[in-house]
Design brief:
By secondary structure, this protein is mostly helical. It contains seven helices and two strands; from the N terminus they run ββααααααα. Helix 2 packs parallel to helix 6 and helix 3 packs antiparallel against helix 4.
Length: 205
């Protein structure tokens, strides 16, 4: 590390874990995605040929951009393991409480399929179960996207933070002249479809 002098003495710069940056402009994209998904579910007969159900794919694109951008900064943390652990803790506190409260409420209310499928949803394997059954699972069908997100969170941090080289696969943090995190560090690119794909498609993280 390079040193800097202050008052005639040399001090070392210590790499710290930078706080994740907030991009308020992306809130507009989130609003578009939420609106598109809600509209496609509530008014499926009035979409006028526009694939509004693809709004959920926009959420995947946002995750594919934002999460690697956070993880790339963790590569400079003095304790990578601790930094990744804190990353997981933030995800858990953000996602798990609401998810498991909804799942428990559905089980208590005896929502159809809740008593037989809840272990799959609790393990974030809804997409695997839907693909295995080859059919949507009623009120729990939308859990497939949450399962894909969690599987992405499970594997991707270890690949990005500990990949060999200065940055993995030739991608780097914003402004370094190389690829953006949304280009080189993202989940597998999904082929665009105008029609709703079969349930087995939802099993692919």
């Amino acid at each position: 590390m390079r040193g800097c002098r202050s008052g005639g003495r040399s001090t070392r710069r210590v790499a710290t874990e930078p706080p994740p940056s907030y991009s308020p402009q992306l809130d507009g994209l989130r609003a578009v995605a939420v609106t598109a998904v809600v509209y496609s579910h509530w008014l499926p007969a009035w979409q006028f040929g526009v694939p509004l159900g693809a709004g959920v794919h926009l959420f995947f694109v946002l995750s594919g951009f934002l999460i690697p951008r956070i993880l790339l900064r963790l590569r400079d943390a003095p304790d990578r393991t601790g930094a990744v652990g804190r990353f997981y803790l933030r995800r858990v506190l953000r996602l798990f409480p609401a998810f498991y409260v909804v799942l428990a409420a559905a089980w208590v209310a005896d929502v159809p399929l809740a008593s037989t499928t809840w272990p799959w949803h609790a393990a974030y394997l809804s997409n695997a179960y839907i693909a295995w059954q080859g059919a949507w699972q009623g009120h729990f069908s939308h859990f497939w996207s949450l399962a894909v997100e969690e599987q992405f969170y499970l594997a991707w941090p270890w690949l990005v933070v500990w990949a060999p080289g200065s940055t993995p696969w030739g991608c780097g943090p914003p402004g370094d002249g190389r690829r953006s995190p949304g280009q080189g560090c993202r989940p597998a690119v999904r082929r665009w479809r105008w029609r709703s794909p079969p349930p087995v498609y939802r099993a692919c993280p």
